[in-house]
């Protein structure tokens, strides 16, 4: 049996870390965008001993996050699984590729095994939390669009509101990857993130909009001390061309406004991508 699923990428502008004993209640508050570039996963299952093999962009990968999620779905069902995932964006730049790849593969298997969509979300969220590769990506992706994570955790524990907005977004990779897990494990950085993040969440809740998402994200990146010199220089280069901020957590930025001029300026720093807001969310696109 074979199925193919797509999951959008997701970028976070600001966040507050919120941990609980129950993993499905753990996550983050904050706001971000689900984007048209993401992960496409084709999954084949056949009777076997529970072996899981994963290729990402044509190369065999350990993919521990995806592997853990899939193992929970097949556990004692006696299937071997092979996964081929194509990522539209680089890993380690805050584009939610770990969550997108894991959720796309999980959704494809859930569909083949007649498991509910919610179960695919649960195993992907759990794997992301355990491996410290993300906190709120799966929650946001479960809704799609421009999202405000009002209450941490995977819905229905978490509460994720949609924000009405539409825009063409330029993503710019302006420096080397950042390991999300290293940031999330640093106590000093976490305390600073949470102090500023709490303020940002409260401010955004008063008037959720795309304009305020950009504005508050820029404030968060600057005040939290997360903003790198790579990002700072790139943001200075596009000053005045439209709203822009740092993608959490990567040496990358997201911007809107005069997209042609923004793209031209950011190309001097690294690779750029034009993306749209994805309102559909994760979906199965083929089954055999």
Provide a descriptive summary of the structure in words:
This protein is an alpha+beta fold and 288 residues long. The protein folds into two domains: 2-162 and 281-287, Ribosomal Protein S5, domain 2; 165-276, GHMP kinase, C-terminal domain (Alpha-Beta Plaits), CATH 3.30.70.890. Helices cover 36% and strands 31% of the residues. The termini are close together.
In short:
It is built from nine helices and twelve strands. It has 288 residues and is of the alpha+beta class. It has two domains: 2-162 and 281-287, Ribosomal Protein S5, domain 2; 165-276, GHMP kinase, C-terminal domain (Alpha-Beta Plaits), CATH 3.30.70.890.
Examine the secondary-structure arrangement and name the CATH architecture of the largest domain: 2-Layer Sandwich
- Average pLDDT number: 95
Outline the biggest β-sheet: 8 strands, mixed
- Sheet-strand content, in percent, reads 25-35%
Rg to the nearest angstrom?
Answer: 18 Å
User: What is the count of helical runs?
Assistant: 9
Domains counted in the coordinates: how many? 2
Keywords:
288 residues; alpha+beta; Ribosomal Protein S5, domain 2; Alpha-Beta Plaits; 2 domains; eight-stranded mixed sheet; four-stranded antiparallel sheet; 9 helices; 36% helix; globular
């Amino acid at each position: 049996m074979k199925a193919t699923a797509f999951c959008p990428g997701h970028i976070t502008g600001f966040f507050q870390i919120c941990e609980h004993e129950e993993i499905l209640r753990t996550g983050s508050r904050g706001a971000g965008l689900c984007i048209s570039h993401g992960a496409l996963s084709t999954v084949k299952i056949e009777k076997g001993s529970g072996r899981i093999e994963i290729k990402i962009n044509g190369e065999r990968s350990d993919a521990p996050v995806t592997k853990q999620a899939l193992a929970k779905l097949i556990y004692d069902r006696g299937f071997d699984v092979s996964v081929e995932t194509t990522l539209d964006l680089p890993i380690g730049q805050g584009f939610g590729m770990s969550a997108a790849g894991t959720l796309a593969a999980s959704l494809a298997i859930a569909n083949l095994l007649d498991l509910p969509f919610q179960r695919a979300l649960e195993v992907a969220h759990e794997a992301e939390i355990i491996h410290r590769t993300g906190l709120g990506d799966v929650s946001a992706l479960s809704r799609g669009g421009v999202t405000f994570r009002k209450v941490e955790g995977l819905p229905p524990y978490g509460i994720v509101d949609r924000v009405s907005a539409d825009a063409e977004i330029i993503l710019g990779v302006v420096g080397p990857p950042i390991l999300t897990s290293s940031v999330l494990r640093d106590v000093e950085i976490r305390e600073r993130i949470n102090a500023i993040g709490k303020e940002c969440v409260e401010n955004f809740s008063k008037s959720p909009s795309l304009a305020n998402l950009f504005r508050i994200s820029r404030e968060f990146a600057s005040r939290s001390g997360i903003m790198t010199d790579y990002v700072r220089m790139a943001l200075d280069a596009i000053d005045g061309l439209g709203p822009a901020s740092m993608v959490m957590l990567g040496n990358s930025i997201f911007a809107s406004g005069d997209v042609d001029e923004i793209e031209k300026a950011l190309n001097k720093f690294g690779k750029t991508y034009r993306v749209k807001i994805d309102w559909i969310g994760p979906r199965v696109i083929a089954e055999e």
